[in-house]
Amino acid sequence: MSTRTKKNLRGILAAVTTPFTEDGSAIDEAALQRQVERLVSAGVHGIVPTGTTGEFTTLSAEEYRRVIELYVKGADGRIPVVAGIGALSTQGAIDLAQHAETVGADAIMLVPPFYDPLDLTTLKSFLSAVAESINIPIVYYNVPGATGIQLTAAELAELGDIDGVDYIKNTSDDAVGLAELLAARTDRIKAFNGWDTLTFFGIASGAEASVWGTAGVVPELAVEFWEALAEKKDLDRARELWKHLWAISDFLESVNYVAGIKAGLELIGEPVGPARLPIQPLPAEERERFAGILRNAGVLPAVAA
């Protein structure tokens, strides 16, 4: 490979949905472009398509590539695009990663094969093979709940020894492990927060970015929170904002995440279609609960008395 590129990823990286038409049969390209414009206007620092929030497991091979291409084209160099890459074979991941680089993605977020959990040696071999096939940096997607790969902070830090694996998105509720990564392992790899309800903890502990599905629903609130906590070090203001962001994040962790995100976007008047089957829409009572949380956060107008 030629010279490896570096990309300084920092701030609120919104994990974005894949908008579908009303029957879920096709990508809604116009809604996708509207989503990009809304997030760029809100000041988010990057977007992460085709991850968990982007329902990558439901996309056909052609759709997967098209969604990455559309997000890169929509962002148009204004903010970084970190393409989520997930496949059940090394070659499948390489093919997607090379496509992402070819169409202009700034980095990839790579989840390991998620059916038969890999041991650490096999995982390193997988990551090395993908890293050697591209020049853009890799964010390792640590999501033990989906992959079955449970690594200690020390083992996660070892992954940073692989050339090109620069970052970890830590989608784990292990706050102690995240604390260790951020306090004692930053010389080996940079860890981003990826567990919504740990966002305050992660950023306050030194995470330089948060890959956050919630930010796709309330981007202005998420950006204001980042500015208060990470940039201005205004702990009091950050705590005020976090009360609302925690309530939203806690709700999303209590329901099917994609269904919750898509319901939230519909509630705020930015619909992106349904989640693909077998995921079901949120039940009416859960939608109403979410609407109440969004009203409390000032995102939806208050109900008239």
Put the structure in a nutshell.
This protein has 305 residues and is an alpha/beta fold. It contains 13 helices and eight strands.
Would you give an account of this structure?
With 305 residues, this protein is α/β, with parallel strands linked by helices. 47% of the residues lie in helices and 12% in strands. It contains 13 helices and 8 strands. The strands form 2 sheets. The chain has a 5-stranded parallel sheet. The chain has a 3-stranded parallel sheet with strand order 2-1-8.
Global morphology: globular
Portion in helices: 40-55%
Number of DSSP helical runs: 13
Class derived from helix and strand content:
alpha/beta
Rg (CA only): 18 Å
Given as residue ranges, the uncertain stretches (5+ residues, pLDDT < 50) are none
Question: Main beta sheet: strand number and arrangement?
Answer: 5 strands, parallel
Distance between the termini: 64 Å
Strand content: 5-15%
How many beta-strand segments?
Answer: 8
Quaternary:
single chain
User: How would you write the strand order of the largest sheet?
Assistant: 3-4-5-6-7
What's the average pLDDT?
Answer: 96
H/E series: EHEHEHEHEHHEHEHEHHHHH
